[in-house]
Amino acid sequence: MFLSMTQKIKQDTNDDKDIIDITKKYYALAHSEVLEQELDIEFEIKKKIADHFSIPFSSIKIVGSAHIGSSPFKEKIFCKTKSDLDISIIDERIFNFYLQKILLITDSYSNLTFFSSKYSDTPKTFRYKVSKGILDFTLLKSIDTIDDFEKFFRTLSNSYYNWFKNINAQIYLSETCMILKQVDNIKKIKDTQYDKVRY
User: Fold this and answer.
1) Residue from 165, 163, 138 nearest 83 by CA
2) pLDDT of residue 19
3) What is the pLDDT of residue 198?
4) Do 178 and 91 touch, CB atoms closer than 8 A?
5) 3-state DSSP call for residue 3?
6) Are residues 61 and 87 in contact, defined by beta-carbon separation less than 8 angstroms?
7) Which helix (H) or strand (E) holds 147?
8) What is the predicted pLDDT for the residue at 120?
9) Which class for 169: exposed (0-12), middle (13-18), buried (19 or more C-beta within 10 A)?
10) Helix (H, G, I), strand (E, B), or coil: what is residue 30?
């Protein structure tokens, strides 16, 4: 019987396997379920990212609904052209490069004008994510410091508009930081009835 990745994850969680090991298995090892039959697309996208940032393929992971086939918290499956492709870039050098730039331009977070006003606690959220080894540029306004990063992914998104709504990326300090970020998804899958996921 064919099992989707989310069903396999749920099966593993029901067997009381270690949650970190399950997360590593499906996020650090497994290939994208959505692109499993489209390796050329996955290769092209990862190659462009690897070449642009001078990082190895192993530093680029697909996460989100494009990876496991659905969004655990939204309880919706991946929908071609309507869902995003979420990328994790795992590289200490790139993480520190952008973080140092952000610290300088925000005067160590004291200048709040560079943070997005979408949420009242954006600076606090940004600092919290940094403490977890995550750089999330969606919490910042479009500034020169990260403009090259955003421009690259806008261009990449436009190149694959027939596949994804947008291609987004977050930068992680290490693989451990990325794995710990995905643990909540695994826990949510464990508690979700996937026969009721919306299509």
Assistant:
1) 165
2) 93
3) 42
4) no
5) coil
6) yes
7) helix 144-159
8) 73
9) buried
10) coil
What's the whole-model pTM score?
A: 0.90
Amino acid identity, position 95: F
Per-residue pLDDT of 134-173, as tens digits, reads 999 999 987 777 888 999 999 999 999 999 999 999 999 9
Q: Collect all residues with Cβ–Cβ distance below 8 Å to 39 and sequence separation of at least 6.
A: none
DSSP bridge pairs for 63 = 86
Distance CA 102, CA 96 (A): 10
Rg (CA), the chain: 17
Q: What is the pLDDT of residue 199?
A: 35
Span 115-134, pLDDT tens digits: 887 777 888 999 999 999 99
Query: Is 164 within 8 Å of 66 (Cβ atoms)?
Result: yes
DSSP per-residue string spanning 65-114 = HHHHSEETTTTEE--TTTS-EEEEEE-HHHHHHHHHHHHHHTTTTT-GGG
Confidence category of residue 71, pLDDT binned at 50, 70, 90: confident
Q: How far is CA 30 from the centre of its chain?
A: 15
Calpha distance 35→41 (Å, rounded): 7
Phi, psi dihedral angles at 79 (to 5 degrees): -125, 115
